Fold this protein.
Amino acid sequence: ADAGNPVTQTAAVIGTAQYLSPEQARGVKVDARSDVYSLGCVLYEMLTGEPPFVGDSPVAVAYQHVREDPVPPSQRYAGISPELDAVV
């Protein structure tokens, strides 16, 4: 595997780890809610300049999607209101 490639591929899971839904990370069946989750990750990065989770490997990032809550955007950037946190 190419360590510089941000795209993960294991069995039936393929995608960019920063935007994987927890269901995709666990390798279970997904539906439109996974797309909404991934869109939320993109919105998070657009607002803060960083993805919601970062790690040393795609597996570490996928684990965070399953087990952790991201830091609210308003705590990363003071110009973001807590109300917008609820949207993201």
